[in-house]
Amino acid sequence: MKIRAVRPGAAGAVDAFVVPLQEGGKAPAPLPRSARAAVDRIAKSVHGVTRPYAVTTHHGDPLVVVVGMGKPEELDAERARNVAAAGIKALWRSDARRVAIVVPAGALGEERAAEATAEGAVYAMWRPETHRTREAERRLPPLDTVLLLTARPATRAIARGQAVGEAVNLQRRLANEPANKMTPTLLADEARAVAKDAGLQVEILDEARCRELGMGSYLSVAQGSHQPPRLIVLRYRGRGGGTKGFDVAFVGKGITFDTGGISIKPADNMHHMKADMTGAASVIAALGAIAKLRPKVNVLGVAPCTENLPGGGATKPGDVFTSMSGKTVEVINTDAEGRLVLIDGISYAQREGARRVVDVATLTGAIGVALGPYFIGLFGKPRSFVDQVHTVATAAGDRTWPMPLTDEYRDEIKGEVADLRNSAGREGGAIKAAAFLDAAVEEGTEWAHLDIAGVDWSDRDRTYAPKGPQGPAVRTLVALAGHLADGAVR
Length: 490
Fold this sequence. Notes:
Layout: E1 2-6, E2 16-22, H1 33-45, E3 55-58, E4 63-70, H2 77-89, E5 98-102, H3 110-123, E6 145-149, H4 155-176, H5 184-198, E7 201-205, H6 207-212, H7 216-222, E8 230-237, E9 248-252, E10 254-258, H8 278-293, E11 298-308, E12 320-322, E13 328-330, H9 338-351, E14 356-361, H10 365-371, E15 376-381, H11 383-396, E16 400-402, H12 407-412, E17 420-421, H13 429-438, E18 446-451, E19 457-458, E20 468-469, H14 474-486
Parallel strand pairs: 1-6, 2-4, 2-5, 5-6, 9-11, 9-14, 10-11, 13-17, 14-18, 15-16
Antiparallel strand pairs: 3-4, 7-8, 8-11, 12-13, 15-18, 19-20
């Protein structure tokens, strides 16, 4: 799908117009007379037409889709994304190939509005019903061209919006696949395809190589499965191939299916555990977008992937393993497996020379209890870096909430027979999980942990995300790489 900006009035023949309508507003003047008349009629005759994301369609030639925008002073990037997505979703059952979207005006600024509009349009071109056999139940319009009606060219902004939108949709697709079609090996194949398309360096570490590196904690999770583990490594060097180390590393939890192991989960909703690799999918998708946008920053992606199953060789509660950092780990609960793979991923990233590490994981149900389905839990150190990640995430459209992480919680994850224990009771569970990860963070490394377990999946439709995988954190990772490049990291 090609997205480009054209000046108002220069769209030419299109199959549909998507028109944002603000409170008290009229149809934008640059629209063709018939489309403008249709918008004005809808504005006068349809109650609640300007309510945010309300959609009213005029079935003419071309189609005119009016999307409520609310008050003009409330326009921000998130609303612009939602407006565009709502308009494109209204075309799902159409045969539209060429669509024009009026970029909403306001205090947001035309370039930022164009970027958000492109992003939202791409979001709407994904559906979760991939494996249904009836074409009508998974149908998308055959869109090949989206024209953004704006006075500014906004070429780079549109490219950013499209790259981020496509990355989020990739993350959704990967997280939506059933576990028999997204094993660690198949996820590694997906990473290879992304690397080839975007020009990334890719390396896949097998079990033998991980054992050589001392990743006993990660490999302990893989013991119960017949599927071999795969540790995915993606490298982007935006500051030139001769530069050493990485300005930032992104580490994603890649549990392609999680039964809980010997500490087996209840049967209800266990099928959703196919998406326990959403952190890994976020890292893979974000690295692909970063490579396409070419910021001058070196970024490392690490995704330790495995299944967590209760096979005959599975880890038992009470077993002790040695992590890559050299610290020993007592496994109290085999369903607290995400932190076991992540600590070795974090250690690997630091050994590769990463100065900053951001991990992304569907880590704890406790974070959903604490924050509900709307906020990502944000932990880390030092405070200045956590604040930086929070600011970047907010601007990118991911809502994060900084959480406490103090020595009391670090004390609670000390093991009885080993250095660490992977579970220390339910109270403050998300914080204790973060404290466990912190044990692998070396002195001088800036670190942030994004617990996305409350927001990665939705059981109901949202404006730019159908029910199913929601695509969290990808935008934050891409934006953070750009932010570090703009800050001329050294």
